[in-house]
Amino acid sequence: MSVDRLPQVRLFEYAIWGRSLPPDAMVAEIPKGWRFDGAAMTGRKQAAIACHCSQVTNLIDDDPEGFCLSPDMLARFAGDEEIFFEIDP
User: Fold this and answer.
1) Minimal CA–CA distance to 19: which of 75, 87, 86?
2) Contacts (Cβ under 8 Å, ≥6 apart) of 6
3) Which end of the chain, N or C, is less surrounded by CB atoms within 10 Å?
């Protein structure tokens, strides 16, 4: 079903790479943000992140330029706070 047929639906996105931008990075229009307390789900969230073995371990070892999230990047998602941005469908 098309989003156009559901005008009451609001669309949100979860910031991943934007959280690693330097503070002085130029970005397009800043969307409306929502901050939620996710403390009750921190353990589940960390378990879910750990399930992505190809992104959090050296599982893929045949590419020296292979992608793996750094401990610093993972720490950004380990906290209790969740941030979502409302975007136009």
Assistant:
1) 75
2) none
3) N
